[in-house]
Amino acid sequence: MKKGLFFVLLVAIITLAGCSGSDKNTIEFWTPLTGEDGAYMDQLVEAYNETEPEFKVKHVVTSDMYTKMYTVLNSGKGIPDLSIIHADRVPSFVKQDLLEPMTTIVEQQSELNQDNYLDVAWESGVIDGTQYTIPLDIHSNAMYYNEDLLKEYGVENWLDDNVITFDEMLSMEGKLAENQFIVNDALMSWVILAQIQNLGGDIQVDGEPAVNTPEMKQAIEAAKQVADAGLMTPYGEDGYLMFQSGDVFFSTDGTWSSTGHAEVEGLNFGVTNIYSFEPDVYHNRASSHLFAMLANEDRTDEKEQGIGEFLEFIRQNSLVWAEAGQIVASTDVVESADYDQYMQSFFTSTPEQEESLYIYTYEYYPYIQEALDMYVADLVHGEMDIDEGLAEMQKFVEDKVNEGTLDVENAPDELPEEE
Amino acid sequence: MQNKRNFAPIFFVGPHIILFIVFILIPSIYGIYASFTKWNLVADPVWVGLDNYKTILADSDSTFNSQFLNGLKNTLLFVVLSVPLMIIIPLMIAVSLEHKEVKLKNLFQTLLYVPGLISISAAALIWSLIFNKQLGIVNNLFGSEAVWTTTQPYAWITIIVVTVWAGIGGNMIIYRAGINGVSRDLYESAEIDGAGSIRKFFSITLPSIKFPLIYTLVMTTAGAFNVFAQPLMMTSGGPRQGTTVLMMYIRDLAFSHGESIAGMASAMAVLLGLVILVISAFQYYAMSRNA
Amino acid sequence: MRKKISISKYISYLFLIVVSAIWTIPVIFGIGTSFRSQTEVVNEGFRLLPVNWIVENYVKVLENTSTAPILQWLWNSVFIATTHTLLVVIVISITGYGYSRMKFKGRDLLFFTLLAISFFPNVVNLIPSYKIIDILGWVNTPWAMIVPGLAGMGNIFLVRQFMKGIPMELDESARVDGANDFTIYSRIILPLIRPVLIVCALFSFTGSWNDFLWPVIVYTDVEKMPVTAGLLLLQDIYGNYRMIGQLMSSAILAIIPTLILFFFAQKYFVSAINLNSGIKG
Fold this sequence. Notes:
- The complex is a heterotrimer.
- Chain B is an all-alpha fold.
- Chain B has helices at residues 2-34, 51-58, 63-97, 105-113, 120-131, 137-142, 154-167, 169-180, 184-192, 197-208, 210-225, 229-234, 246-255, 262-289, and strands spanning 37-38, 46-47.
- In chain B, a hairpin with a 7-residue loop joins strand 1 (37-38) and strand 2.
- Chain C is an all-alpha fold.
- The radius of gyration of chain C is 23 Å and the shape is globular.
- Chains in contact: A-B, A-C, B-C.
């Protein structure tokens, strides 16, 4: 009796609730671009919609986009037509069959090809020869310098070869005024990832994650040496704000920070590469915002065509995106004269410079990044023994890889072999 | 008569039970089910039985085992540090506010309630600036040389300060209401007997607000076990994962950058739920029996 | 005797003033920061109030009506929180009546079982919860935030206990006069439990207002969002706080409605509240 009544009521509630379908003629476009970035993307979308396309674009900013993506993918409803994802997500998304290839779009829009984009951005969307994404930008680790401080200490010549070395930084040991520092520890895990490239190392061996490597150790030890010499902003202090207040020579944050630093009056700053061991080998760990289509059977061919037109429009008109501080991926934009006014054009000024931008595309990279974020500050600042930390990080990543359910659909068959 | 009695409660309790089933019971059952599976949030969960629990509880080599133990230890530490303050400070405030000669009660109460209305990210930023070594007030005022968020025990202190600052408003109001309801006669007769303020507090006020105390203790404790925003924003769980609470590990497993490990996360959440349950039940029974 | 009261009065004042000062200084600092430029934030040390007051932080936040329609968000939040609160008051008073003043088999067992279940952390229940909201067609509607919270047990716990303290003789004599449960509930019990309902209403309102995990999941439409979820969109995606002043100004704007409500409601419950009236009998 009771149960019956509840059931009736439950059904009533469910049926009472209406359905909300998304508009057939709009492209629902999700991005994780909060803050100012979202406003610039809005401008681009608005400009596109003013061209009266058949399919208008509706830009949806989501502050916790990936969690939200999982929820809609799981329920199969409300999946966006187009979205922006980060480069490091591509391998695992593809492996889980969550992405629709861009194949037909690339066929229809002939200009959407590798020649028209920065190579590294384009290639981060290629998995086993299939194009899954079209790049919007590269956002990279970058090192800002305080012009006044360099001048004050007479070391502007450090910038001559566009690479600051560990040795140059260490040469200032004991020479700085109180509460001044050479470099902060912003985005330290990205800096370490660049050093691994500088040292010729990698984060994988034959597809297995490799965190506990000699290169990783050397990279962390080198950074620790700078910290031990009292040249790095101390652990836990806000190095980003300290750079803005003019007490730090270099800030290792991102290309996008230029707009934030520009807000501070009287801060004269420029941008260069992340410090390195040798002036002729340098890398900047980068990522990329990529247009991607989450797998969704309801997406019509016409809509896909509409998406192609939007992406072509972005390719031609994304100069606005440079305002957000990002390295625009479209070469038409990057080579235009207007682009030179933006600070980040430094990173595309020469072919060598362009090659310094390094995007990790190893499938388990996200776990490695997570491990680095969790441990690297403690290691660099001497809170934890490096060997011990590296061993724990290696274990951390391996355990996560083993628990990850990538092969879950084949799990029953493959399990015996794996053991 | 018997029939009538059985039927009426359905109308009073039934609607809420439906809401409960739909919005709490079904999701919880799914969450418990997920704890026995491997699940990446997108594909269908694959049943693995007790594997997740075995790994978390018994496999001392596993990262998940050490994460769980460390997270649970830190969560318990947070509970032990924060809950007494979240009870005692608002209680003292309420007692002071209910003093019959104190004026401006509303002003004081508003001032103390406002921090709870500020969004946690803004609150964390305010306190980060206050604890900031260069810009902040704490070091300038107290001449401390420590970097608060990365040195123990200061890292915990910053977390507790933000929590207590933003969290006492609700309990304060409950206690005030409770004390307000104590009959004036009791106090007056006690005064005639020559009882001092302290004795009046212990022999009249406290026993009279027994239920508000039980209620706030149970609720505050359960809330404290679910903490994650304050440590995440104040210390990022450092130094050396010394302030990484269990909910941070659970969220990282389920919603971090790599492929989701939601089954393991669910198992940790279920274990946390059991801990909360046991402790709340213990508190409730202990408090209801005594006093 | 007289002297004793004075001493405790001064101790009370002293304590209240000290605590209020400690609690208020960060708020003033936050408000002050919302009127400071980024330059000033990084260059001046700790100062309670700005050197140069600027309103640009507020202007920028209010001007950005396409990506961040903060006034619309505030309105959404007011609607959601108010509706939620009204429904909470109805649900908890009816349910509390059922669990305290009606007799049925397994009543207390049922109550404590539900209470126990509700203690489970809900972090991994996000996906099934979303699925249910999706099935109901409530994604991007206010109902997604108004209804699920009605299932909570905390307030019912409080109301139930309060009602238990009201003497059963009241019900009995009404029943003799021919009143049924609904009449007893609405005519006798409801007026008596007003204080506890006001307290619960306040908690529900601020709880609904401050929730930020759930709304991020159930809203994509920027126009429909409540203000806490909206504020997250203003924050920097890289975790650097580019614009400290703007973050503060938006946070300050977001608390104004609750603050006003609190200020007016408090007059009410300070005079009316008497949580123990029932319990004492």
